[in-house]
């Protein structure tokens, strides 16, 4: 662990005699300090005295040998062998000899050992600080106490707050991304140096004012990668007009995926509607056969149910995507055509509630079905005759319902062989249609992966999907062409692509194309330059983790040092892997896609998009 590598100052204390283990000690690190006494009990207490003949005034720097007085100062240090160490320092006050100096008397400083006025050595402070950065206040104090490092939660938090930001060279290429203090309510901004892949600052919000002010303080910046938001675009225009704006590829692909998903939702819902209409007929005709409810469900019922469930998941995906666009539940309800309460309920659940088999709608014919069936078995097939008999028994429903029921009996109360022969081949094909079980996100994911990375059955499904309608085939070709630009950085094909979208007349792409047109220079840069917000994504995730570990008590003064100070080991690891991957950076991003698996949830899709982009 890290603390064992950190030698405290007394690891240089040497024991020279075996019989008197603590009698002779040499201090190597502090040449101007003399050890007067060592007391080893449960605590190690060292009494020290400063011996340098002079000290320099902290105000004017003049050396002085004129001692005014002495006093005792107590310092705590890192433990040794599990025992806490306390230093009792005899330090001196000096007169400043310079007449013009405002400071007449000063205390000699021990810059290698501790900060002025501190009660802990620098190394102990550093250890507590690291505990605070990695684990937070209370967790840091708990771990510290296990290791014999004393420091309360408040001390640790104070040290973390006081930590100056890490020293970094002025950035040239940065990425901006937002992160949620509280989803849909309050957002902050994370800024990363994209050349180093390191977070360099954390801003309290994402307003034009805050971001542009920060940018003005860093005139060295010449390239800025950002998402498609107009806020950041305006902030950059205001604060860093010299910088080239790069629209982040991850966000581009994510937005494209949203459009493709809408198109697929429309197409799949259409397919489902056709299927549902056909199934509804089948269900209605099956009822009069008098099959008990517990009978195993037929394939068509199963498919219809899958379709219903798939439609629900499609709607749910639509809801979450609208929610991500910060729409209110009332607005979402209006768009997806559902009750606001249901929308809120589903979003709170975080998934799609399972829809069981649908209960047949009650019909006025229900009480007479048994009679109808009985007469039918007796050989009476005459609709008019049966209607008269039913009306005599009190039936008040429509004639149509009776005829529909008779037609159903014609089809289904016959032998299974007859039943299957009645089904057209087209119908059986439709019943086996695997597309109906696909959610829009699964279908989108099929579109977004490279064809040679798909399994055989996935390739088959993709083929079927593309053949299902011309709009689906066009959608596929458009998505593929855009992803090619993203992967190969061939932004010069953008105009051609935009023309192709226009020619396709696909409504689902409209919002995406409008967005691209409005931000064309940045999109072009994103599809040409190697920069993207990739490094930010990981840092935003790390930030979220830290924020959550602070149980909502995180404020910027504490969150910022914890995000900006990364452990040295972490940094070394990062540098190592960076050097290793430098040459493969372009190819590597695409190779990563090979490890991707098909996903069922939209969150997973979002993660996977980052691998594509
Ligand atoms: Zn002075």
Features:
5-stranded mixed β-sheet, disordered N terminus, alpha/beta, 613 residues
Largest sheet: 5 strands, mixed
Query: What level of helicity do the residues show?
Result: 40-55%
- The radius of gyration over CA amounts to 37 Å
User: Low-confidence parts, pLDDT < 50 over ≥5 residues?
Assistant: 1-28, 282-300, 412-432, 586-607
Hey, roughly how much beta strand do the residues contain?
5-15%
Distance between the termini: 36 Å
Description of the molecule:
The protein is of the alpha/beta class and 613 residues long. Among the domains are: 14-119, no CATH class; 125-161, no CATH class; 363-436, no CATH class. 51% of the residues lie in helices and 13% in strands. It contains 26 helices and twelve strands. It has helices at residues 2-5, 122-135, 137-146, 153-162, 208-216, 230-239, 249-286, 299-324, 329-336, 340-349, 369-377, 383-392, 399-412, 416-422, 425-431, 440-448, 456-468, 470-488, 494-504, 510-518, 520-526, 534-549, 556-564, 568-581, 585-592, 602-612, and strands at 33-40, 44-50, 55-56, 63-64, 67-80, 83-95, 105-107, 173-182, 186-193, 198-203, 223-226, 244-247. The strands form three sheets. Strands 1, 2, 5, 6 and 7 form a five-stranded mixed beta sheet that branches. A hairpin with a 2-residue loop joins strand 5 and strand 6 (83-95). Helix 7 (249-286) runs antiparallel to helix 18 and helix 8 (299-324) packs antiparallel against helix 9 (329-336). The chain is elongated. It starts with a helix and ends with a helix. The model is unreliable at 1-28, 282-300, 412-432 and 586-607 (pLDDT under 50). The structure holds zinc ion. Zinc ion is lined by residues 57, 59-60, 62, 96, 98, 101, 103.
